[in-house]
Write a structure and sequence with these properties.
Double Clp-N motif; about 0% strand
Length: about 180
């Protein structure tokens, strides 16, 4: 299926892994796909999402709030002059990348690999279905966004719902970009 993805759609999938890693999440979820769709902000899909109030910064904040990654302990340590990112960098410089990852991940040797959640896998499948339904030869980032909407659940949809975004209107605006 990935051979049908456009280069930008592939960037979104890789970007989702980067987003999950930056948030220190152990799996790639729908929220990471949404985050990757908003970066960079100069793509047609990102512009449509931004018109609906979904910028990268807004989605990051929402995901952190919804996943409890507001890390109050990190804030408390910062007030004491302890920078957790600097500590992580120092540990990884001395002991290698992933040294602070969960022991079971290190033991399996997959500290660099982050798996897709079942919902995120479903989004990829639905993106293919969207492309077929819209008679597209390839799967674009727009199809990935449409797959997110069609899946209809997951943290990405919670972010949309919490912001009062109408999924039908968003879908309509996204489909319009396919003709541009």
């Amino acid at each position: 299926m990935f051979e049908r993805f456009t280069p930008r759609a592939r960037e979104v999938v890789v970007g989702a892994q980067t987003e999950a890693r930056e948030l220190r999440h152990g799996r790639i979820g729908t929220e990471h796909l949404l985050l990757a769709l908003t970066r960079p902000s100069d793509t047609p899909t990102a512009r449509v999402l931004a018109r609906h109030g979904l910028t990268h910064a807004v989605v990051v904040e929402a995901v952190r709030t919804l996943t409890g990654a507001e890390d109050l302990d990190a804030a408390a340590l910062t007030t004491l002059g302890i920078d957790l990112d600097a500590v992580r960098e120092a540990v990884e410089a001395s002991f290698g990348p992933g040294a602070l990852d969960a022991p079971e991940r290190r033991a399996r040797g997959d500290a660099g690999h982050i798996p897709f959640s079942p919902r995120a896998k479903k989004v990829l499948e639905l993106a293919l279905r969207e492309a077929i339904a819209l008679k597209s030869r390839s799967i674009t980032e727009v199809h990935l966004a449409l797959g997110l909407l069609r899946e209809g659940q997951g943290l990405a949809m919670k972010v949309l719902h919490d912001r009062g975004i109408d999924a039908v209107d968003l879908r309509s605006d996204l489909v319009t970009t396919l003709g541009d």
